[in-house]
Amino acid sequence: MTTLRPDPAPADSGTEADILATAHRLGRALHGVGALDAAGMAALDQLCLPPRPAYDGAEVRRIRAATGLSQPLFARLLGVAKSAVAQWERGAKRPSGPAQRLLELLDPEQPESPVVRVRRGIKTA
Hints:
mainly alpha; 434 Repressor (Amino-terminal Domain); 2 domains
């Protein structure tokens, strides 16, 4: 089976997310009628994971403020050094991939966590 890959051309993240959501719905429908096997559906699930948001300093501060935690406690919650949180909030550095996902889970402005979105896709497949 051929592995589907996203178009390498830069795309608006909203558009890319819409395309991936549509592809995933189509894949679930094909899987539901037996036209896509379990391995193909698993590959599509992996391809269609929601993209990580790129949080800047102000957004990190907003999320930390929403938790009500100090920088040292917030850093401990995320499993990073206090200096990392301070650098993120100043804009000197950006959170890494795993830290971005953790911030997304804590972000009160996210409509639902990426875990919920992935689980919903897996359960309905």
